[in-house]
């Protein structure tokens, strides 16, 4: 006659804490700046293709570095950043991103009225000012500004930076405030820093309320849709710059 052993509930194994900190964020930022400077120096008289490379490559490479850091020094972007597909995060990102799109549009309109059209231009807009791109390259820029750049920037600012500050046991409010400020300053557009703060607030809110990166990526992409569409139409010569 056998005796059954009582079932003892087992706890899931604890998730390993990532081993990267603020240095990882600064390294990814250094990659962005270094690639930008090297491309600008190498392509002193850029054609259309070179312009697209100057706009796309620094951001994509910096985002790739952020992912690589999580793979080498952490648990990968899914666990370290919460970068996974959840409908709840997508819907939250869409809702907050929609609100952010409205507030950003209003803020941009007021900013241009107060400061003038030139002060309202982003670096991307300035580089493409007066440049008519071939349709294929115009679509590449559209997709980059709308989908790819937001993903890469979120990996850096609300991925690496956010996670590094959480590792230091900072409160969520402090993490939100500082990452929002660094995001605005890190674009290296001093004339537009105040406007970029308005842009960054709803994106950071999406990250804070869900605790995961997916929502902030979606919110960022929603916020970038209209500027990306405007760049597409201008680049194709369908709308005046």
Automatic annotation (TrEMBL):
<dbReference type="InterPro" id="IPR003675">
    <property type="entry name" value="Rce1/LyrA-like_dom"/>
</dbReference>
<feature type="transmembrane region" description="Helical">
    <location>
        <begin position="170"/>
        <end position="188"/>
    </location>
</feature>
<feature type="transmembrane region" description="Helical">
    <location>
        <begin position="132"/>
        <end position="149"/>
    </location>
</feature>
<feature type="transmembrane region" description="Helical">
    <location>
        <begin position="222"/>
        <end position="239"/>
    </location>
</feature>
<keyword id="KW-0812">Transmembrane</keyword>
<feature type="domain" description="CAAX prenyl protease 2/Lysostaphin resistance protein A-like">
    <location>
        <begin position="137"/>
        <end position="226"/>
    </location>
</feature>
<dbReference type="GO" id="GO:0080120">
    <property type="term" value="P:CAAX-box protein maturation"/>
</dbReference>
<feature type="transmembrane region" description="Helical">
    <location>
        <begin position="194"/>
        <end position="210"/>
    </location>
</feature>
<feature type="transmembrane region" description="Helical">
    <location>
        <begin position="20"/>
        <end position="43"/>
    </location>
</feature>
<keyword id="KW-1133">Transmembrane helix</keyword>
<dbReference type="GO" id="GO:0004175">
    <property type="term" value="F:endopeptidase activity"/>
</dbReference>
<feature type="transmembrane region" description="Helical">
    <location>
        <begin position="93"/>
        <end position="112"/>
    </location>
</feature>
<keyword id="KW-0472">Membrane</keyword>
<protein>
    <submittedName>
        <fullName>Membrane protein</fullName>
    </submittedName>
</protein>
<dbReference type="Pfam" id="PF02517">
    <property type="entry name" value="Rce1-like"/>
</dbReference>
<feature type="transmembrane region" description="Helical">
    <location>
        <begin position="49"/>
        <end position="72"/>
    </location>
</feature>
């Amino acid at each position: 006659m056998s005796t059954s052993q009582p079932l003892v509930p087992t706890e899931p194994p604890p998730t390993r804490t990532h081993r990267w900190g603020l240095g990882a964020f600064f390294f990814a930022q250094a990659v962005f700046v270094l690639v930008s400077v090297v491309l600008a120096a190498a392509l002193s008289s850029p054609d259309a293709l070179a312009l697209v490379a100057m706009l796309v490559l620094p951001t994509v490479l910096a985002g790739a570095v952020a992912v690589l850091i999580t793979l080498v020094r952490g648990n990968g972007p899914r666990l370290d950043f919460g970068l996974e597909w959840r409908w709840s995060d997508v819907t939250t990102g869409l809702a907050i991103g929609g609100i952010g799109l409205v507030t950003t549009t209003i803020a941009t309109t007021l900013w241009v009225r107060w400061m003038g059209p030139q002060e309202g231009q982003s670096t991307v807009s300035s580089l493409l000012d007066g440049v008519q791109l071939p349709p294929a390259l115009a679509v590449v820029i559209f997709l980059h500004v709308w989908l790819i750049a937001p993903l890469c920037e979120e990996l850096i600012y609300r991925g690496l930076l956010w996670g590094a500050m959480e590792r230091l046991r900072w409160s969520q409010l402090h993490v939100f405030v500082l990452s929002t400020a660094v995001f605005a300053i890190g674009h290296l557009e001093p004339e537009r820093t105040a406007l970029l703060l308005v842009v960054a607030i709803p994106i950071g809110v999406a990250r804070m309320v869900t605790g995961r990166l997916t929502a902030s990526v979606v919110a960022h992409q929603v916020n970038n849709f209209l500027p990306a569409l405007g760049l597409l139409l201008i680049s194709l010569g369908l709308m005046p710059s």
